[in-house]
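Q: What would this complex look like in 3D?
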Amino acid sequence: MNSLRRHKPLLILAGVLLLLPLVLPNNFYYDIAIRMAINAIIALGLNLLIGFAGQISLGHAGFIGIGAYASAILPTHFNWHPIPAMLAGAVLASVLAAIVAKPIFRLKGHYLAMATLGLGFIIAIVIKNEANYTGGPDGMPVPALGIGSFSINGEKQWYWALAVLLLFSFWASRNLIDSPFGRALRALHGSEVASQVMGVDVVRYKVAIFILSAFFASLMGSVMAHYVGFVTPNIADFFHSIELVTMVVIGGMASIYGSLIGAVLLTALPQALSTFEGWETVVFGCILMFCMIFMPRGLVPTLAARFGGRGGEGD
Amino acid sequence: MSQFLQFLFSGITVGATYALAALGFTLIYNASNVINFAQGEFIMLGGMLVFYFLQAGLPMPVAILLAIAIPAAVGMLLEKFTIEPARDADVVTLIIITIGASLAIRGVIQVWLGKGTHSYPAFSGSEPILIGGATLLPQSLWVLGITALVVVALWYFFSRTLAGKAILATSCNPLAAQLVGVNTQWVLLVSFALSAALGAIGGVLLTPITLTSYDVGILLGLKGFVAVVVGGLGSGLGAVIGGLLVGIIEAMAAGYISSAYKDAVPFILILVILFFLPRGIFGAKVTERV
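A: Here is my prediction, written as structure tokens for the whole assembly.
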């Protein structure tokens, strides 16, 4: 009984994912659902960094770009199998994150934002300029993802693959937050000094969570590249980083449900705004401002507080 | 040697614009602890508005005045309606608000003036001046002259006038400033207006050399931001020197190493600075109290 209650959110999410195909009328909607799931997984990872550890990254799209291009370049130019290519990208992203993280995490606040912003820009510029390997601004095709003769094809197969991945990420994030590691993260968000006094190695934990989120961002970059079948440098650009941070912040920092909601909303937004022809950027900017002014804690925690639920905080 | 001089000229010219943007960042940061990611949009607004008013048939001086006054008004609106209601929000929230503002401003210009690239004639002809085998555009002299003038005027404002000292007092300690009768809300408004005007001036001056379009703001703004980091967050002198340094290093790298990686240079610089001189070259040494 107790374990059933503990897993209730996971079961609800599984139920939604199972029932969703019944109401998705065609491949267009499957496509949106798949993109929502991809973004939700990235947002979950980024939220561990922003929401729980209180560190902002303005260059996360750079890590996604590394994964996407590893999955495009290594199989195409060097005949790698997609799976090791994916891992190689994730390792490269983690190594970069580790190199940058160590000196940066001694600083705080604005400085990490600046450093990650710089790193993201550099990655995007390298991708744009190394046209021999990356196809430059035009982008390049990505081979299908598969093992042996089996490969993931079509929207329906991708939907189920991502549904499983999303469930796993959701479960893993919840567990991570309840683990000693997660408690340490939340403690250092609350007060770095206090957690240091309690024996939390602040820098080590921040570095660890930054590397972890870079690793998963890169993996999801690979998944996205394989799903779309084509990558362009836009995947690594500053605007994409901003979109990802926005998902986390609008949904609600330090709220796992918030990340899901934020990803769903921000993936749907461009579709909804396409009727505003030309005004998309203006509307997007205004929504960002209004959300942050009137609900600085994000949708889920704000609504949870208003309706007296306990769902939002730390869950 | 003449080549070196040529790169130096173009570096200093662009660097002066970065310096103006960096001063804008610094002003707002000092007054409100906000890093205003919309700063670059004011640079874009300056250039685009001059282009628009010239097209509409206004004489150059009027067009320039309007192109500085309008962004200043936009800056005040930004402060009044987005920053002030969110005063107590944390860093991440404030950063996102200014990013939202930057998108909104860029979007309006994109819808209103289109996606084309625009320019207008230089202020006093485009006959290049020969110095030591290198050429210098007259417009570059305008950029450097006006920037120098602005820096001196700002110095005077902050060290010799009551209003300037009120802003300085607010940036040191808002509560204490309020207690001795400084209207801190007014200080915030003025800081945003001033900072927007500075950015716009940079855009107005630079556009005849580099052209402009609705989307140039973000990169120019971010480079101004790099200049701030290089000089040290919160230091006015640092902002100016940081701006010039970023411009010069960028031009040298473009000339001697690779023009394709020109835009990456400021961001490599930011990482190097943060690794080795985290408070920038002129940043104050602070001990934090818990």
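A: To summarize the key features: Residues 202-228 of chain A form the longest helix (27 residues). Strands of chain A lie at 140-141, 146-147, 150-151, 230-231.
Q: Very helpful, thank you.
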